[in-house]
Amino acid sequence: MTIEEGHTNSMRHLECLTQRATCEQMSRNKKNSINWKAAIMSNENALWSFVEAKKDGFCNLADRVWETPELLYQEKRSAAAHREMLEQQGFRVTEAVAGIETAVMGEAGQGGPVIAILGEYDALPGLSQQAGVDQPTPVEQGGSGHGCGHNLLGAGALLAATAVKDWLEANGLPGRVRYYGCPAEEGGAAKTFMVRDGVFDDVDAAMSWHPTNFNGIIPPLTLAVAMVDFHFKGRTSHAAVSPHLGRSALDAVELMNVGVNYLREHVPQDSRMHYAVTDSGGIAPNVVQERATVRYSVRSLKRRDMQSLVERVTNVARGAATMTETSVEVDFISAMSEMLDNPPLYRLLQRHLEAVGPAQFDDADRDFARRIQGTLTDADIEASFLASGVEPTDAPICDFVVPYETRGVPMLGSTDLGDISWKVPFAQLGGGTMAIGTPLHTWQTTAQGKAPAAHKAMTQVSKALAAAAAELLTDTKVLAEARADFDARLQKTPYQSPLTPDTRPRAA
């Protein structure tokens, strides 16, 4: 046995003794009606031991989901894998949550507050990549891949929820923990639909995490977004013999795009408008296209500004239809709100992440991270440090926790977690599962999705989430502070779903 192995075994033995002592102390406290918080916080690593005990099974779950990448609302195998794990771990399982086939929820415990830990497991198109390979090498040419780390996100969140469940059972404590397996974050806005359908109405607080470049809280700054299809319909004709008889839907799409490009000068600076022509009406240039469709993602820093901008973009579409004597059908696909802040919850998560500390990487982890960095540009790595707000270092992978007050240059995206944050007090962590500089939605992220370093970072975040959930379940003051902050913000700006009443979840 090496010195290191002996130290590891000693630490494990100490953890077992600490866990046993903590459980015995809590049993005595229960009889004497003593505040549970002191016992919990004095031996935080006892809770972490529940994560350590089962981490291998959940790393395996993350790898299984990585191996079966599925797009929005098509995550049947991924959802099934999470459902099976929930059942195996003794959760009470609800399938097809909010009528969404690939949404699943597991609950454990009785009475007390309800704390939710949210996971995801949808993949992205075109990001197939072999694991552990530092050059573009698709598993399937043009296939899907976990280029945003959701295989880790779902498994890590479920690991945290399981640890809380086991801890509640071991100590006979009241309270309920729920794991929500949420599909279709990548453009499908499943959580927004789930919020609209009341799935979170009885939840007291919710948390999540996301794989990223650094360890720390993810600042609650995102863009509200709506996804809208504009279907133009014209009249076909022979483009050479009788072009005057045709009315080109493709011309309408092109004119709309020109109009929106001119609109960019007259919108708030934080607004974004992206488009893709999803149907050009055919491939024959000698036929006037009678149909064409363009899809727009419209984003703004505030939900109300996004909704106003959608109407302006829609007016441009109507103008393009008028100019080309075509008609246009506006098809609202999905929408998400911006993130609502909750400082008490974010401080709670930060405190527990600092207590857990960063993952302990070895030379092999750092070597692979450097090889991934070799495929990136200096600008990629610089942008990552700028976004995090920390000074650049030579470390290829994050081995520290970013301080709470650190704020970098905002690089804004959108997420349906935004609507969760308007329904219940919410906060999320970032876990440094990948080489510093790795952009999300790239083959490099997919390549690192099964790496030992990713498993290590996922496990550390799970410990922080579990410990924070335990504190919320046992300290009424912390939960009350989070709720008071949440209520004050909603009183100032009430929540309104960004979805239209008739919008339904669908694979886009």
Molecular structure report:
The protein is an alpha/beta fold and 508 residues long. 44% of the residues lie in helices and 16% in strands. The protein is built from 15 helices and eleven strands. The chain has helices spanning 3-32, 36-42, 44-67, 76-88, 150-171, 190-196, 249-263, 303-324, 343-356, 363-373, 378-388, 417-421, 443-447, 452-474, 476-492; strands spanning 92-95, 104-110, 114-120, 175-182, 205-212, 216-217, 224-233, 272-279, 291-300, 327-336, 426-432. The strands form two sheets. A seven-stranded mixed sheet has the order 1-2-4-3-5-11-6. The chain starts with a helix and ends in a 16-residue tail after the last helix.
